[in-house]
Specification:
heterodimer; A: 293 residues; mainly alpha; MetI-like fold; 14 helices; 73% helix; B: 371 residues; alpha+beta; Rossmann fold; OB fold (Dihydrolipoamide Acetyltransferase, E2P); 2 domains; 6-stranded mixed beta sheet; 5-stranded antiparallel beta sheet; 24% helix; elongated
Chain lengths: 293, 371
């Protein structure tokens, strides 16, 4: 396999090759620039930034802005830093991702292995849910959350994100299970396994790649969501993204840019972490079924 | 009361009927092979016995209990699938005992059954492996182990050998036959391979277009095919079908080919006369297996009715044990099976012999065998 791909590489001269790498390197540097600026300024005393020194490395290195962003900055009424909001986000993301992934897997299982009249129409409708813009559902959703008494709570946000995520997770699992041999399900039926036993014992153990895709996708989307968090949460349940906005947008006092940079990185860290840990499975999962072998 | 009984079973998808009034009954310990070209409904019928497909009308009974609305797991059947359908995430041992576990059989008993089956199929060394680490033949064994361990009333095999290479297929075929002989289990086996059907079965149901064309033993099917479809589908090379006209010549009945010059004229055994009487002076189709059409020395010398004629050899194909010779009789190309050392040359005339006791006749209008 390796030998075959080696042979298929287009042969280029040394000059062209150097040129390609130089251009690629420049692109990479350019792409990384914002991150570098953020990192550099997050470890710089505020005086150095306001002194007009944005790009250069700090004269004095300090982790103070990070500590401040995490536990001291004025975000809400109290000077709590981003810490409580970070936990709010975690408390929202973990159940939302878990529930939407499990429901998506069940939907995919039923839509491919327990076909019923109108299943394609139902799947089409679920697929349609992926294309509904967030803004359209804001007011109806607010009403529904009000009726259920979930307005302003973390669980309210979980419900919103689960409902919005099911379309995507169903799509993933349905397409994945469509390629899963139905004979296995039939064999399990003859073996006497029940509906859920077939799901837990046969399908789910083989769903690693697509589960990673679903988790990454859902985690990133829900963690990064701002609109629902800003609309449906109150002070006790605001997620990280809303808190970061409040931190950066606050109109009173001195703008502490170094703290803002540190806060922004803190807000982005969990998604980065998920990508680093599971990223290679992500690509693998997206490609699953496209090529045999 | 038969052991497995299929009574007037039909299957429809919407308004399309794919199986029409299937009637098959087999006794305990029989090996029934459902054979036919793809799309003939044989796998659908098997799935209906398994309970994976609903029965539109009619009924299926096992041990005289109607199975129509019984869940697959409650029918006491086991199935071996074409793709083996081994659970990829489980070890061989788990694969084999999964069904027992689902039926709530306690662990010590499961272990005992597992080791009995593993010993029988010689897969003891593989029990801790995953299906992905097995070869095709080993997977096949595990799939059979999974079926055997349940000790079911009926085994269902859905083209179990079609994913194996030619050599392994023959080996596994022999093993399945041995297994059936040793255990005396009742088996329903689906295949499109007529050799498998002939070698394995105690009885064969030849199917086409959702109808059972003929139900009988290998020999019945081979020697006395019910119609032209069975005659051509079973046997390799296929039965030669020669258009002839029947003529009465004194006390003898003759079959004459029309298109040849000179005409080949074959005297029929007197035994056939009653059946063919009303077809005298009409065109019929004469069917002869390649081994009943041979060279002069290769013919069965004890056969009482040998007819000799000469014809032009078009092609000679030595196949090691036999030589297949193609010639033209009655305007159609026929294959004769001769001895390996038969001396024939292409484009030269040679003498052929037909064993008339092994000849069958079909009515060209209805395609049904008449003698």
């Amino acid at each position: 396999m390796a030998a075959a791909t080696q042979d298929m590489v287009v042969r280029t001269g040394a000059v062209t090759r150097t040129l390609i790498y130089v251009v690629l390197l420049l692109f990479a540097l350019f792409y990384l620039l914002p991150l570098v600026v953020m990192l550099v300024n997050s470890v710089k005393p505020l005086a150095e930034i306001t002194g007009g020194n944005m790009i250069a490395f700090p004269d004095v290195w300090t982790l103070e802005p990070w500590r401040k962003a995490w536990s001291e900055a004025q975000v809400g009424v109290q000077a709590t830093g981003l810490k409580p909001y970070f936990w709010n986000s975690i408390k929202m993301v973990v159940p939302a991702v878990t529930i939407s992934t499990i429901l998506g897997a069940l939907n995919g299982y039923v839509l491919t292995k327990w076909r019923f009249r109108g299943d394609t129409v139902l799947f089409g409708l679920m697929l349609f849910a992926c294309f509904i813009p967030f803004q359209i559902v804001l007011i109806p959703m607010a009403r529904v959350l009000g009726i259920f008494g979930l307005a302003g709570t973390t669980w309210g946000l979980v419900v919103v994100h689960v409902v919005y995520g099911i379309g995507f997770t169903t799509l993933y699992y349905r397409n994945y299970y469509a390629a899963f041999p139905s004979e296995l399900v039939r064999a399990a039926q003859i073996d006497g396994a029940s509906f859920f036993q077939i799901f837990w014992r046969i399908l789910l153990p083989s769903s690693g790649p697509i589960t990673v895709v679903s988790i990454i996708w859902q985690f990133t989307n829900i963690w990064n969501d701002f609109l629902f968090g800003a609309s449906f949460a109150d002070f006790s349940s605001q997620p990280m993204t809303v808190a970061l906005n409040n931190l950066v947008q606050s109109s009173t006092g001195v703008k502490e840019y170094n703290v803002h940079f540190a806060g922004a990185i803190l807000a982005a860290l969990p998604t980065l972490l998920v990508y680093i840990v599971a990223g290679r499975y992500f690509v693998r999962g997206l490609m699953a079924g496209s090529v045999k072998g | 009361m038969a052991f497995l009984e299929i009574r007037n079973a039909t299957k429809s998808y919407g308004s399309v009927e794919v199986l029409h009034d299937i009637d098959i009954a087999i006794e305990e310990g029989e090996f029934l092979v459902l054979v036919g070209p793809s799309g003939c409904g044989k796998s659908t019928l098997l799935n209906m016995i398994a309970g994976l497909e609903e029965i539109t009308s009619g009924e299926i009974r096992i041990k005289d209990i109607v199975m129509n609305n019984v869940h697959p797991s409650k029918r006491n059947i086991a199935m071996v699938f074409q793709s083996y359908a081994l659970y990829p995430n489980m070890t061989v041992a788990q694969n084999i005992t999964f069904g027992l576990e689902m039926h709530g059989i306690p662990k010590p008993k499961r272990e005992k059954a597992l080791h009995e089956v593993a010993a029988l199929l010689q897969i003891e060394g593989l029990l801790d492996r995953k299906p992905g680490q097995l070869s095709g033949g080993q997977r096949q064994r595990v799939a059979m182990g999974r079926a055997l361990v349940r000790n079911p009333d009926v085994f269902l095999f859905d083209e179990p050998l079609s994913n194996l290479d030619a050599k392994l297929r023959v080996d596994m075929r022999t093993e399945i036959k041995k297994l059936h002989q040793n255990l005396g289990t009742t088996i329903v086996y689906v295949t499109h391979d007529q050799i498998e059907a002939l070698t394995l079965s105690t009885r064969i149901a030849v199917m086409n277009n959702g109808h059972v064309q003929q139900l009988g033993t290998s020999q019945e099917i081979y020697d006395r095919p019910a119609n032209l479809f069975v005659a051509t589908f079973m046997g390799s090379p296929a039965m030669n079908l020669i258009p002839v006209t029947l003529a009465a010549d004194g006390g003898k009945l003759l079959a004459r080919t029309a298109a040849d010059s000179p005409t080949v004229s074959l005297a029929l055994p007197d035994l056939m006369r009653p059946a063919l009487e009303k077809f005298i002076d009409q065109s019929v189709i004469l069917g002869v297996r390649p081994e009943a059409l041979t060279d002069v020395d290769g013919a069965d010398q004890r056969a009482p009715h040998l007819e000799r004629f000469s014809s032009l050899v078009l092609l000679s194909e030595p196949a090691g044990s036999d030589t297949y010779v193609t010639t033209r009789i009655g305007g159609v190309e026929c294959t004769a099976r001769m001895r390996a050392d038969a001396r024939v040359t292409a484009q030269a005339s040679t003498d052929f012999v037909i064993n008339m006791d092994r000849v069958v006749f079909f009515d060209p209008a209805t395609e049904v065998r008449i003698a």
